[in-house]
Amino acid sequence: MRKRLPAEWEPQDGVLLAWPHQETDWRDDLAAVQAVFVNIVRAISRFERVLIVAPEIEPVRARLHADSVDLQRVRLYPMATNDTWARDFGPITIFENGTPVVLDFGFNAWGLKFAADLDNQITGKLTRLGGFGRCPVRIPGLILEGGSIESDGAGTLLTTSTCLQSPNRNPHLDRGGIERALADLLGVSRVLWLDNGYLAGDDTDSHIDTLARLCPNDTIVYVRCDNPADEHYEALCAMEAELRGFRTASGVPYRLIPLPWPRPCFDADGQRLPATYANFLVINGAVLMPTYHDPQDAAALEILAGVFPDREIIAIDCRPLIVQHGSLHCVTMQIPQGVLP
């Protein structure tokens, strides 16, 4: 049986989000972050469906209607949630001999850092509510977050050792064991490991989607710090050197495209926040890119337009999102074509 983990830029049925509410960590910034979610839903719904889970769906429906979102492309599912990071507790879809299969990996809030009892049940609850129609859903029995892996759709997976080898995720597996599990569950034929690179304020142990992204035509876009006085400079230079050493499946170097480095962002307590342009979302016909009220926003948009010339590049102001240490890609999970009924 041939298994394959699709690339994000392949055709999609929709995108999953978990609506921010009063019982999440967003309670002090609820108005600002809900406005960001409205913008995300509006942009995605122009191109494909949006699935939203929330403890109370009628206030969400009313809010989206008031903001002129096309509700014909929105599906709302009532369920309790801990937080909003759908990338990491949402379903990961593979194809088996061309047929989609939803995998419900375990989610323990990035190595037992926070409560995750409700979010860990979301894929299962969506299954029972008919959210995935007749698509098979399996529970692999492994902790794995969507933000920790990048796929080119052809057997190559890009990840970070800091995350996947975290002792609070799958302590029974060493690097070789993890690679064998990824091969068995996802059909991965090779894994590219980054041992360097991080963002201050990141709770995920260096998710790959904050640092480097696989893109079409053997391209990797990545964050580059060009300020030697910045705390990230040495680690990101070391990461860049690792990327230069990577080869495609055919043995040639990747086309490497650096993303700009935004100015440092801080919260009210002076803690640095993980602003990154790498946390973009690819959907049918468009790329949603996070912006941060920064002079480099325009340059990042131009770079992504060159990487995805056949898609509209849509800026989403994500300054409110990074207050809770994530960004646009972190709050979304794409559902590949053939899954949704």
UniProtKB/TrEMBL annotation:
Pfam families: PAD_porph (PF04371). The keyword Hydrolase applies. The keyword Lyase does not apply. Gene3D superfamilies: L-arginine/glycine Amidinotransferase, Chain A. GO terms for biological process: putrescine biosynthetic process. Its EC number is 3.5.3.12. One of its GO terms (molecular function) is protein-arginine deiminase activity. It is an enzyme of class 3 (hydrolase). InterPro entries: Peptidyl-Arg-deiminase_porph. Keywords: Hydrolase. This is Agmatine deiminase. It comes from Desulfobulbus propionicus (strain ATCC 33891 / DSM 2032 / VKM B-1956 / 1pr3).
